[in-house]
Amino acid sequence: SPPPGESLGRAFEAELTQILRQQCWNSMSWDSIVPGFHEPGFQICCPGLSHSPRSSSRTPLMMACTRKNLEVIQTLVEHGANPLLRNKDGWNCFHIASREGHPEVLQYLLDASPGCWDTESTTGRTPLHTLCLVFCLLSRCHYTPDSRDRCGVTPFMDALQNGHVGIARLLLHKHQACPTAVDALGAQALHRAAVTAQDGAIQFLVSELGVDVNGRATALRIPALHYAAKEGHGHTIQTLLSLGADIQAKDGKGRSALHAASAGQRAEAAQLLLRAGLRDAPDATGTLAQQLARRPELIQVFQETQIST
Length: 309
Description:
This is Ankyrin repeat domain-containing protein 16. InterPro entries: Ankyrin_rpt (IPR002110), Ankyrin_rpt-contain_sf (IPR036770). The chain is an all-alpha fold. The chain has a domain at about 1-135: Serine Threonine Protein Phosphatase 5, Tetratricopeptide repeat (Alpha Horseshoe). About 45% of the residues lie in helices and about 0% in strands. It is built from 17 helices and two strands. The protein has helices spanning about 10-20, 35, 60-65, 70-80, 95-100, 105-110, 125-130, 135-140, 155-160, 165-175, 190-195, 200-210, 225-230, 235-240, 255-265, 265-275, 295-309; strands at about 215, 220-225. It has a two-stranded antiparallel sheet with strand order 1-2.
C-alpha cells in the first residue's frame, strides 16, 4: 500500500508549502516538513518544535487557520494536529480563525474540538473579542454576556469602536450586551466610538438605543464631544452636535471641547467649534484653550477669531 499522505496530491503539498513559506517560519527548515509529510508515522506536531504556550513558534495548524483552505486544516487535524495548543500570546487555533472571519473554519474546529472556544489569551481576550463573524460563536458557544479583557473592553465596545454596527446589533439581541457598560477607565462604547470616528456607531447608540450623547467618561467626566475634538474628527463633532451634544459642556477640570482640540493641536476641530458658537473661556486653573496652541495653523485660527470679533 502507498505511504500515508501520498494520495493528497501535489496541490495540497504546494498549499502547505506556501503556508510555511509565507509565514517565514524559521524555527525549523520548511524543506524538512513537506517531504516528511509523506513518510510513514509522520506526526503533524513536528519533532523539534515546541508547542508550549511560552514558545514563540506557531504550529502548522495555527498557520493554516490564517487562510481559508479548509482541506489543509482538515488534513492536519486528521493527522494529529491539536487545535487546543496555544502560542506565546495564549491564542489557540480558534482565536486565529475568529480573527480571520472564516465561518466554515470555525464550524469545523468546533466539530473537531468542541471545547476549543473556551479559551482566553494572556491578556484575557476571548475569541469573541477578535472575531469578524459573530453569529457562529453566539449560536454554538456559551460566552458570558459582556465578557471583558484586562482593559475592561467588551465585545460590544470592540464592535462599535471598529464600526461593526451589525455585529453590535447581534451582540445586543443574541447576547444581551449592555450598551452603557464601561471599560476599566470608565469609558462607554459611545466614547470609544468618538475616539475612532465611527459616526454610524454613534448614531446607532444615541438614536436607536437612547444612550445619553452627553454621558461622561472616566473620573474626569469627559464627554464624547471632547474625545472627538482631541482627535480632530471634524465630522464626528458635527454628528455629535446634530444628536444634541452640549457644545458648552465642560469636563471635571472645567475644560471645554475647545481645550481638548487645542491640547491635540487640531486646528480644523477648533475652527469648527468656534464657528458653532463655542467661545474660549478659562478652565479651572485659569488656562484658556488658546494658551495650549503650539502649531502655527492653530494659533492662526485663534488670531482670526479675535480679529473677526
